[in-house]
Design goal:
single chain; 419 residues; alpha/beta; Aspartate Aminotransferase, domain 2; Aspartate Aminotransferase, domain 1; 2 domains; 7-stranded mixed β-sheet; 4-stranded antiparallel β-sheet; 12 helices; 15 strands; binds pyridoxal-5'-phosphate; Aminotransferase class V-fold PLP-dependent enzyme; pyridoxal phosphate; Aminotrans_V_dom; PyrdxlP-dep_Trfase_major
């Protein structure tokens, strides 16, 4: 039996690297397959196929916006991915905006922001994140030499860490930002695949999401949020589709407002429709049940890892923090790249190794892990296991068995956990 929440894969290959790119949801594949015969231009043709595709694209935009709780006056702008969405927002900031972020962010939420961005230290608990932000925004509002300032401020935070899987207190951070007259953008690249994310309910101003991490691997992402900055900013790309009028003189251009202003060029129809299909499938699913299932796998994995004495996990907030299905760890005395390669070669298990495009955070957590355990033989990079829809207890057990065999080749086999 197959269903819309099945993921595609290759028999025998165990994919535990969803946080990098999740597999394709059947619903996304079906939507793309269904549309392919109709494939034609979007916003650019008078034919029936083109009209069908234009409608499909705009319906998909609506579906994605609804799924993420967009307010009626928000824009839903189709991008390539989260990196693209955050770069777009960075270019749309009003002059003089100060961005405030944390040092624990993915590079996509560290590097696009302008000079003068405030990078707050990585907090050791969700409550500390809220307190640190409060203090920083209070200080910013006080202004230089105590002269109060009302210049725009944007807080940029992740919803869930791609290194530790820990969830950030997004709603509380949004309340704090708004209390100080700031706006907030949430990088939901890792949160959205695991829990419902609703812009209006969280009261955040902008949301950035990647389709390929949300089971829609056809190259679309979105930036959703407040229209005013986006409509006032220069277009992200200059070109066809972003204009209202182009005169003969070189600079006689009136740019469009609305999402089209930042979507010049032919849009990614199939990617957008695939992402919308995932949104529809997830909206119809029992998310609480999916979450409970994922949390059970997470407990199984973390319990199994904790039973391997050489394994040290990476964490920011503490062992009991709320998490999504992502775990990073090191094996003391062993090279992480070599372990990842052995898992792939000998066990057909795909995981990620490295510093996960969050170098400042990963380095800090590796140092913290060394201090916590007193071990001096931890490697300089880590391993990351991540999962979601379609992942099974058997896959987790196979990984744990493989790790036990790699870590202690001649030692006793891992004790089997309860089913
Ligand atoms: C938390 C987080 N933000 C942003 C990104 C960037 O996503 P993309 O590569 O799809 O732009 C990633 C990718 O790993 C991520 O984990």
């Amino acid at each position: 039996m197959t269903g819309p929440l099945d993921v595609l894969g290759v028999p025998g290959e165990i994919n535990l690297d969803y946080a990098a790119s999740a597999p394709c949801l059947r619903a996304a594949a079906d939507a793309v397959t269904g549309l392919l015969p109709w494939y034609a231009s979007v916003h650019r043709g008078a034919g029936a196929l083109s009209a069908h595709c234009t409608l499909a694209y705009e319906r998909a935009r609506q579906t994605i916006g609804d799924f993420f709780g967009a307010r009626t006056d928000d824009h839903v702008i189709v991008t390539r991915n989260t990196t693209d969405a955050l770069n777009l927002l960075a270019r749309a900031l009003p002059a003089g905006t100060t961005v405030v972020t944390f040092a624990g962010e993915h590079h996509a939420n560290l590097l696009p922001w302008p000079t003068g961005t405030v990078r707050l230290p990585v907090p050791d608990s969700p409550a500390a994140a809220v307190r640190t932000l409060d203090a920083a925004l209070r200080e910013l509002r006080r202004g230089p030499a105590g002269r109060a300032t009302d210049r725009p401020v944007l807080v940029a935070v992740t919803g869930a860490s791609n290194v530790t899987g820990e969830c950030w207190p997004v709603a509380a951070l949004a309340r704090q930002a708004h209390r100080h007259g700031a706006r907030i953008v949430v990088d939901a690249a890792q949160l959205a695949p695991h829990v419902p994310v609703d812009l209006a309910a969280l009261d955040v101003d902008y949301l950035a999401v990647s389709g390929h991490k949300l089971y829609a691997p056809f190259g679309a992402g979105v930036l959703i949020g407040r229209a005013d900055w986006l409509d006032a900013a220069p277009p992200y790309l200059a070109g066809g589709g972003a204009t209202g009028h182009v005169g003969d003189a070189t600079h006689d251009v009136r740019w469009a407002t609305g999402p089209g202003r930042h979507e010049a060029g032919t849009p990614n129809l199939l990617g957008t429709v695939a992402l919308a299909a995932v949104c529809t499938a997830l909206a119809e699913a029992d998310r609480a049940a999916l979450h409970a299932r994922e949390q059970a796998l997470l407990t199984r994995l973390r319990t199994g890892l904790a039973a391997l004495p050489e394994v040290v996990d990476l964490r920011t907030f503490g062992a009991d923090a709320e998490r999504v299905g992502i775990v990073s760890f090191v094996v003391a005395g062993r090279d992480s790249a070599e372990i990842a390669a052995t898992l792939a070669r000998e066990h057909r298990i795909g995981v990620r190794d490295g510093l996960f495009c969050a170098h400042p955070l990963a380095r800090r957590l590796l140092a913290e892990a060394a201090a916590r355990t007193g071990r001096r033989d931890l490697p300089p990079t880590a391993l990351r296991v991540s999962f979601g829809l379609g992942s099974t207890a058997d896959q987790v057990d196979r990984l744990l068995d493989a790790l036990a065999a790699i870590v202690r080749p001649s030692g006793p086999a891992r004790r089997q956990p309860a089913p």
